[in-house]
Amino acid sequence: MATGRTHRPATRSRGIPEATVARLPLYLRALTALSERSVPTVSSEELAAAAGVNSAKLRKDFSYLGSYGTRGVGYDVEYLVYQISRELGLTQDWPVVIVGIGNLGAALANYGGFASRGFRVAALIDADPAMAGKPVAGIPVQHSDDLEKIIEDNGVSIGVIATPAGAAQPVCDRLVAAGVTSILNFAPTVLSVPDGVDVRKVDLSIELQILAFHEQRKAGEEAAAGSDGAGPAAARGVSGPASSSTSADQGPDGDVPAVMPA
Amino acid sequence: MATGRTHRPATRSRGIPEATVARLPLYLRALTALSERSVPTVSSEELAAAAGVNSAKLRKDFSYLGSYGTRGVGYDVEYLVYQISRELGLTQDWPVVIVGIGNLGAALANYGGFASRGFRVAALIDADPAMAGKPVAGIPVQHSDDLEKIIEDNGVSIGVIATPAGAAQPVCDRLVAAGVTSILNFAPTVLSVPDGVDVRKVDLSIELQILAFHEQRKAGEEAAAGSDGAGPAAARGVSGPASSSTSADQGPDGDVPAVMPA
DNA sequence: AGATGTGAACATGTTCACAGCA
DNA sequence: TGCTGTGAACATGTTCACATCT
């Protein structure tokens, strides 16, 4: 293996860093807002401010996509919207199923941000027979018995799990067996999936715990710092050093079921 | 500003890396599960598997907290639970307010994972007068007119924003003015906050967009790869390279309001 | 023996600072 | 002149491999 290359053969295309990919949706949103206000061009400085990052980072990020800006001028808003959308795969239609239609599942189904991108809620699935047929966000809930058929009929490759923790792994297994290869998991469980399946996890309580850590820290520093030094500095989107990102890897098991009662 | 040092003086205490802090809740959950099953000790290997990370990373993480393990044996479950809880600040009580009681806010209020840690939902706040007094998860919703008083009376320092995008910044400003110094933001907006206030953001549609990127990638590689190379490898919690983490920094504005209709 | 704890190598991500083009 | 695009310096995070202790 010699000196060590990346583990990913990198399909010869470009190798866009994960950190950059994670920010593309931020840029896209800021750009969409500008587009709606019919702003023709933006500088990296302006766009970075709108997206809450610094301009050097933004320019570096864009440099991985190619040279879509004009020196001395900035970026063409419409063109960039298109390029980023294409890069993210949002120019195609992504049918998505949401499994577990409790409060969270309903919130997701109602979430406008999905439809406005390339995502289409193809089906809502719940294990509770009483839910079957009931419309949520205008879409009738279907029973989980039909999960496999629904996946196949709609050509779904992305599934969202919003079930209680205990149901998550079985649901995940069925989704994967039916052909789903990307999963967004809201249940507080580590999901086991075969190679080639992507799992991303959003864990509400983990975020709070990270905040608590920093909060505790602040309380301790108050005593030590005293004068507070730096003064105002204030408010331009990005808060402090600590406002970084979210969790990593997968999440563990062993907690109260939580959302989606009945 | 001279040659440029770190922006953070680093309070001399310990400097636990952000990446490690973000994983502590994962370990804590896995440990809590073991504790409930009365398992007395775990090896780094076992615990890592349960948390969905690799053992080297786990050991390195724990090394920042101190030497809490026993060579040749492993870690004492109860002791570790206590140490991590303390480190995260979960041994104290954190009163939390949730602003915006739509589907998402209700899901959060019902989320068991909060109460089981040091978090206590001190109040639910909504701008809709029709919601006032209505109990959600056993807690009566209060009108946002009383936001400042509620914050002060309960000594709240952590606020959760689950309002539509348009309401997020004003709500944020009022929370901060009333003394909140940590905010968990579910609205798709970049929040401006003064220095010293932490903001973490969870954005549902961003996660989906990142999945879409990788999904698109897979489709492209299928053609190129063919043989698939590596074979099974399969399924032990952590999926592939791409299952990494979530978004970073803050999120931008300019999207459909989303959750919390009325 | 069997596990932790950790220095050192490696990989990824961020920021600086400026060359180069419009 | 004013902006992008990027090499190089720096910072953070991950993995390896083994010394170290029970």
Automatic annotation (TrEMBL), chains A, B:
<comment type="subunit">
    <text>Homodimer.</text>
</comment>
<dbReference type="Pfam" id="PF06971">
    <property type="entry name" value="Put_DNA-bind_N"/>
</dbReference>
<keyword id="KW-0238">DNA-binding</keyword>
<dbReference type="InterPro" id="IPR009718">
    <property type="entry name" value="Rex_DNA-bd_C_dom"/>
</dbReference>
<keyword id="KW-0805">Transcription regulation</keyword>
<keyword id="KW-0963">Cytoplasm</keyword>
<feature type="region of interest" description="Disordered">
    <location>
        <begin position="219"/>
        <end position="262"/>
    </location>
</feature>
<feature type="domain" description="CoA-binding">
    <location>
        <begin position="89"/>
        <end position="190"/>
    </location>
</feature>
<dbReference type="InterPro" id="IPR003781">
    <property type="entry name" value="CoA-bd"/>
</dbReference>
<keyword id="KW-0804">Transcription</keyword>
<dbReference type="InterPro" id="IPR036388">
    <property type="entry name" value="WH-like_DNA-bd_sf"/>
</dbReference>
<dbReference type="GO" id="GO:0045892">
    <property type="term" value="P:negative regulation of DNA-templated transcription"/>
</dbReference>
<feature type="compositionally biased region" description="Low complexity">
    <location>
        <begin position="222"/>
        <end position="237"/>
    </location>
</feature>
<keyword id="KW-0678">Repressor</keyword>
<dbReference type="GO" id="GO:0005737">
    <property type="term" value="C:cytoplasm"/>
</dbReference>
<feature type="binding site">
    <location>
        <begin position="100"/>
        <end position="105"/>
    </location>
    <ligand>
        <name>NAD(+)</name>
    </ligand>
</feature>
<comment type="similarity">
    <text>Belongs to the transcriptional regulatory Rex family.</text>
</comment>
<protein>
    <recommendedName>
        <fullName>Redox-sensing transcriptional repressor Rex</fullName>
    </recommendedName>
</protein>
<keyword id="KW-0520">NAD</keyword>
<comment type="function">
    <text>Modulates transcription in response to changes in cellular NADH/NAD(+) redox state.</text>
</comment>
<dbReference type="InterPro" id="IPR036291">
    <property type="entry name" value="NAD(P)-bd_dom_sf"/>
</dbReference>
<dbReference type="InterPro" id="IPR036390">
    <property type="entry name" value="WH_DNA-bd_sf"/>
</dbReference>
<feature type="DNA-binding region" description="H-T-H motif">
    <location>
        <begin position="26"/>
        <end position="65"/>
    </location>
</feature>
<dbReference type="InterPro" id="IPR058236">
    <property type="entry name" value="Rex_actinobacterial-type"/>
</dbReference>
<dbReference type="InterPro" id="IPR022876">
    <property type="entry name" value="Tscrpt_rep_Rex"/>
</dbReference>
<dbReference type="GO" id="GO:0051775">
    <property type="term" value="P:response to redox state"/>
</dbReference>
<dbReference type="Pfam" id="PF02629">
    <property type="entry name" value="CoA_binding"/>
</dbReference>
<dbReference type="GO" id="GO:0003700">
    <property type="term" value="F:DNA-binding transcription factor activity"/>
</dbReference>
<dbReference type="GO" id="GO:0003677">
    <property type="term" value="F:DNA binding"/>
</dbReference>
